[in-house]
Amino acid sequence: MTHKNQMLEHQTVLDNAKATTLRERDTLRQQLTAELAKGDIDIDAITSNIVTEKLAEATGKFEEEKNALHGFLQSKIDRNLALEV
Prior knowledge:
Number of strands: 0
Helix content: over 70%
Number of helices: 2
Number of domains: 2
Structural class: mainly alpha
Radius of gyration: 25 Å
Largest sheet: none
Order of helices and strands: HH
Low-confidence stretches: none
């Protein structure tokens, strides 16, 4: 398979993915419009839930990175102490 054929295949896959994503977006917009038309959606509660989820996700990532860094620093300290001894 030539490089040009591979590029064409990748472009086709990307075009299909883009089309699928656009269809899903349009469907979600229609659903949102229909739900908003009902008037019984609590946008503040939805926004609050989303913010809470994103904050929990960010906090979790921060804790993971903090623990990884702490472990890395502890191993460095242990190696330095072993070298000093």
